[in-house]
Amino acid sequence: MVFTEAEIRKRMQKYGTVYFPKDIRDKEDDLIGIDNNKEILEDFFKSLDKYQEYAQKLQQVRITPSITVLLYGPPGTGKTSLTRALAKKYKVPMCIVDADKLVSPLLGDTLKNMRNVIELAAEIAKENKVFLLFFDELDAIASERSNVHEVGEIKRGVISFLQIIDRIDYEGIPLAIFGATNHQNQLDSAVWRRFTYHIWFGFPHLSIRKEILERFLRRLEKASIEVESSIFHRLLNEEKELLLNFEEMKKKSRKLTLLDYENNLKKETGLLSITVGYTGADIERAIRVSLLKAIQRGVLEYQDLINAMEFVGGTRTHVEQQSVLSRTEGEITEKKISNSSTKKKPRDI
Ligand SMILES: Nc1ncnc2c1ncn2[C@@H]1O[C@H](COP(=O)(O)OP(=O)(O)OP(=O)(O)O)[C@@H](O)[C@H]1O
Ligand SMILES: [Mg+2]
């Protein structure tokens, strides 16, 4: 029995958002500077089509290809958009599972939800030839088991998750399981190992940021919003200058990468310099902010973009602030633990 679209939507919506190829608006071409990741994932999607045929043959010799992919890296770097864009291109229906809908404070419910969603997806994949289940914020359900602060519920959830993935692989079901995380260090090592592909999404370097900016600006022009032409010239000049500097510095230190060079840039005034540590999503957000000014005035100016970038801020700064915060929280918790353990110690006589 083949599942209809309506049935899939109805049964899956408890766990997340369902996307059929026709619902998806993300386009591979809009995502800049992640060509390696595109290539790996394209190959993956192409082979999905033939998966079942080979999986059945390989099962006889007790080898089954595992179709699990882990996407990791800072927020807003294209993990979800690229997956969706390729799912559209290769006509693979998918569900983005919402961690909030799985993790429940009620004992046993998280486990049950996890089992249910994977089993439902496996059933759909078997009947409809293929399905993709995307676990967003995988760390929320698959944190390090050895972490003393984690509750037993999550530990059991992780184990159950691993067992189900193993079974799906073993049975050769054409269900692609994707996981995405911004906190790869918190992932349980066994979960990390279960994913066959590990794909890193990093911060874009200056030439990529320039291209992302230009793409967005061209789109505005297409929508008949005037963009000051000096913006394009200034971007070009700034890129040239920074790259020349980089080449000079590279002569002294040959291992220097463009990203290292950028990380040591002094705070300067150009668009490319102030956007070090900005993701594609940050740039997109800033363009939206600057757009309001442009609409008021009828033209988008260079300074509008600078102001908007500063207003929005870069993800790297937020990530660093967060890690300082969680480090401090960790220290406080550790202090509490060590204090309480000193209290419990029998008094020396
Ligand atoms: N490399 C890129 N080129 C152009 N635009 C990008 C790029 N990366 C991200 N964006 C923009 O940012 C938006 C958000 O990206 P997306 O949701 O895929 O990020 P993500 O990595 O899944 O983030 P999160 O970890 O928060 O889920 C995209 O729709 C796109 O407009
Ligand atoms: Mg995402």
Helix-strand makeup class? alpha/beta
The portion of residues forming beta strands comes to 5-15%
Order of strands, widest sheet:
1-3-4-5-2-6
- Terminal residue distance: 76 Å
User: What is the 3D form?
Assistant: elongated
What's the CATH topology name of the largest domain? Rossmann fold
Defining key terms:
alpha/beta; 2 domains; 58% helix; 349 residues; binds adenosine-5'-triphosphate; 8 strands; Rossmann fold; six-stranded mixed β-sheet; elongated; binds magnesium ion; disordered C terminus
Give the SSE layout.
Layout: H1 5-12, E1 16-19, H2 35-48, H3 51-59, E2 68-72, H4 79-89, E3 94-97, H5 99-102, H6 109-128, E4 131-135, H7 152-171, E5 175-181, H8 189-194, E6 197-200, H9 206-222, E7 226-227, H10 229-252, H11 258-263, H12 271-274, H13 280-297, E8 299-300, H14 302-312, H15 315-344
Parallel strand pairs: 2-5, 2-6, 3-4, 4-5, 7-8
Antiparallel strand pairs: 1-3
Helix pairs in contact: 2-4, 6-7, 9-10, 9-13, 13-14
The structure holds adenosine-5'-triphosphate and magnesium ion (MG).
